[in-house]
Amino acid sequence: MEWKNIEKKVEDGIATVTINRPKALNALNYDTLMEMLDCFKAIGDSKDIHVVIITGSGEKAFVAGADISFMGELDPLEARGFGKLGQNVLNTIENLPQPVIAAINGFALGGGCEIALACDMRLASDRAKFGQPEVNLGVIPGFGGTQRLPRLIGKGHANELVFSGKIINAEEACRIGLVNRVVPHDQLLEECISLAQMISAKSPVAVRLCKESVNNGIEMDLDRGCAYELDLFSLCFASSDQKEGMKAFLEKRAPKFIGS
Ligand code: CAA
After folding, report:
1. Who lines ligand 1 at CB under 6 A?
2. 138 plus 212 within the same structural domain
């Protein structure tokens, strides 16, 4: 599939995916979502990519939401199909075996905020702005915002954002736990790459199982979650990475992980 609205760059096991429709503040139309689905499915199948970074092109926006000019003409069934496609893309991101970092470089509104929510970690530029402004348009969030936002920041803060449609700055987003940290705008990608490098130097097997344990376990009660963790913990002992990691520690040298 040819991509016109996104770009992917892979360097040293780190894939950077850029949503690239700066004239529309990287808004998500049907084609962009289809291209993202294609891109993230391929990333999920790759053994050579260890960490993924998602960002937006241009100086103003991460992603300013689903494309309003595209949505304006939809009937209810088409809107359902569009919402389902968006949810499919975000579920694919959330369920990638690799950790995903959102590099939020500007407006992250509606579907843009929802992309950030589907990522495993969120770093924001000090120029980033966040919100779920769907109520201004007579709709509700459709790409998982009413579900992931309260799970991440709690019902009270999520309700305030979703009911009021208000836009908050990066500092406020950090205060309520919507982002991990805020960094100066021109250092955002550098910070994300440095975090990605730190992760990609670890055992890929262990990192993937950590993600699986957190993502699946968080939906369980504590006893079941811990039992699930135990299964994955013991599974690590079937890997070369576990043998190498522990041997290297005992031999006082750096481990050489092979990801199996
Ligand atoms: N869809 C389509 N086009 C968009 C867009 C969107 N979500 N956001 C911005 N654009 C377009 C504008 O129409 C404009 O295009 P033209 O130059 O052709 O007029 C261009 O991007 C630049 O935008 P502005 O001139 O508006 O820039 P600004 O700096 O004055 O304002 C903004 C920036 C506050 C982000 C404003 O563009 C805005 O409010 N955008 C809409 C945000 C929004 O409501 N997002 C939620 C969409 S609904 C959704 O996402 C539902 C869901 O959960 C799936």
Report:
1. 24-25, 27, 64-69, 86, 107, 109-111, 114, 133-134, 137, 141-143, 145
2. no
CATH no. for residue 160? 3.90.226.10
pLDDT of residue 223: 98
- Residue 46: inside a domain: yes
pTM across the whole model: 0.97
Q: Ligand 1 pocket check: which of 30, 59, 60, 68 to mutate, most ligand atoms within 8 Å of Cβ?
A: 68
Q: Which residues form the domain of 242?
A: 204-250
Query: What does pLDDT average to in each consecutive run of 10 residues of the chain (260 residues)?
Result: 97 97 97 98 97 97 98 97 98 98 98 98 98 98 98 98 98 98 98 98 97 96 98 98 98 95
Residue 123: predicted pLDDT: 98
Handedness of CA 140, 80, 116, 153 (dihedral sign): positive
What is residue 35's predicted lDDT score, i.e. its pLDDT? Answer: 98
Query: Would residue 116 count as lying in a domain?
Result: yes
Is there a domain that residue 236 lies in? Answer: yes
| Domain-terminating residue out of 200, 225, 240 | 200
Query: What Rg, from alpha-carbon coordinates, does the chain have?
Result: 19
Burial of 12 (0-12, 13-18, 19+ CB in 10 A): exposed
Counting the structural domains of the chain, the total is 2
Residue with tokens 């919507």: 178
DSSP state for residue 257 in the 8-state scheme: -
